[in-house]
Write a sequence for this structure.
């Protein structure tokens, strides 16, 4: 079969399976990611330890010597209803991400697309966190543009999740789109970043991004940083929520199966009273960036959110947390108690 026909077949199959977009690029299109990364590290040297190993994204043929191209698909999540009680606490991406969700429709579509690759005689591989720099790949495949807040936008805004595969055929399918760049005078996203992680266009300090801190922190954070993190307990959407280009893109049409039930089990008070088995049952399968050895972080995040938005009805929960068996939780409670003396 002609390479172009093969590429078109894959793209059509992906759309039929419900992906919002699908494209394919040859590996040489990814080389300049290395320059982007070097520029980022020069602008923000603190990011180096976190981003150093993403250099391999520019050369997927190093881990996959047989690879010839990358297939990239985007899935829209801005169509789902957001449980009211989780808005502003949990980054929306994490509510709808299909990774490690065996019952998700997208997980099933991914499996069907992979069956299709096999049917067509195409060798492929996929990684949980991507085989390449996924925003860059999606942009190169014409699926959208990258805005100043670093996000890939399609016509449905930045509320899209990206998946990538390396394949052993040199296929190319580049879509066109009519999205236009950010206005020169807009800086809403930068102004909205609570920790100044996004400190200039197309550039962020990944060590100060609330998202990474909510699941990556190894101990209590300095008070000034904790304060800036506000009420986010897992992820952060501030630089996306502030963007006018995202204005009408969240449509709230569809109910994600099981999400309301899960949301009903999540509150500050519930998290503070959860033991390990409750955390495993309620939180782990969906919010798997916090593994059991770091379950204490959920409570620390909640206590920090309580400090930043203290309400007298929190008092009983706080007293209970002061007897928690984890030292970091007790330490954070002490910090909170010191603070509320002044309320
Ligand atoms: C490492 C990582 C993180 C780290 C560091 C993030 C970072 N930006 O460096 C941490 C943990 C902080 C993180 C957080 C989040 N992440 Co993350 N993360 C990744 C990962 C694994 C690699 C990203 C990377 O390469 N960073 C390196 C830097 C150099 O890239 P970048 O900041 O994205 O910048 C891009 C643009 O700025 C552009 N660029 C740079 N200069 C210029 C100049 C011009 C003129 C242009 C046009 C473009 C341009 O090129 C860069 C490369 O694509 C990707 C998955 C993957 N394999 O790609 C997901 C990914 C980027 N994350 C994603 C998401 C959703 C998030 C969160 C929103 C989750 C949340 N709600 O809390 C937050 C938001 C953070 C943010 N503001 O970007 C999505 C983004 C989807 C989208 N629509 O863009 C991805 C693609 C995962 C996925 N499967 O969909 N993430
Ligand atoms: S996700 Fe939050 S902390 Fe991270 S860059 Fe965006 S606004 Fe800043
Ligand atoms: S807030 Fe403004 S500058 Fe930032 S991404 Fe949106 S349009 Fe671009």
């Amino acid at each position: 079969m002609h390479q172009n026909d093969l590429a078109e077949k894959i793209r059509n199959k992906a759309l039929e399976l419900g992906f919002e977009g699908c494209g394919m690029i040859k590996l040489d299109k990814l080389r300049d990611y290395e320059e982007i990364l070097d520029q980022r590290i020069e602008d923000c040297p603190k990011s180096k330890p976190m981003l150093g190993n993403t250099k391999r994204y520019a050369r997927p043929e190093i881990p996959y010597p047989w690879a010839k191209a990358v297939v990239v698909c985007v899935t829209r999540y801005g169509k789902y209803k957001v449980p009211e009680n989780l808005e502003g606490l949990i980054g929306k991406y994490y509510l709808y991400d299909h990774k490690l969700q065996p019952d998700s429709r997208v997980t099933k579509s991914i499996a069907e697309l992979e069956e299709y690759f096999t049917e067509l005689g195409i060798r492929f591989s996929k990684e949980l966190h991507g085989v390449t720099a996924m925003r860059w790949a999606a942009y190169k495949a014409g699926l959208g543009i990258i805005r100043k807040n670093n996000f890939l936008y399609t016509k449905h805004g930045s509320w899209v999740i990206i998946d990538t595969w390396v394949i052993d055929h040199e296929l190319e399918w580049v879509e066109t789109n009519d999205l236009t760049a950010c206005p020169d005078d807009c800086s809403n996203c930068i102004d909205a970043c609570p920790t100044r992680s996004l400190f200039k266009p197309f550039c962020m300090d990944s060590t100060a991004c609330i998202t990474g801190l909510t699941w990556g922190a190894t101990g209590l954070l300095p008070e000034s940083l904790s304060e800036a993190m506000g009420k986010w307990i897992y992820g952060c959407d501030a630089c996306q929520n502030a963007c006018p280009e995202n204005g009408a893109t969240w449509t709230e049409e569809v109910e994600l199966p099981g999400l309301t039930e899960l949301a009903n089990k999540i509150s500050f008070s519930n998290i503070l009273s959860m033991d390990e088995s409750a955390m495993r049952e309620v939180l782990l399968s969906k919010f798997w960036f916090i593994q059991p050895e770091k379950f204490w972080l959920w409570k620390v995040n909640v206590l920090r959110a309580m400090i930043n938005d203290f309400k007298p009805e929190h008092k009983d929960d706080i007293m209970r947390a002061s007897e928690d068996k984890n030292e970091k939780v007790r330490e954070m409670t002490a910090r909170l108690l010191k603070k509320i003396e002044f309320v």
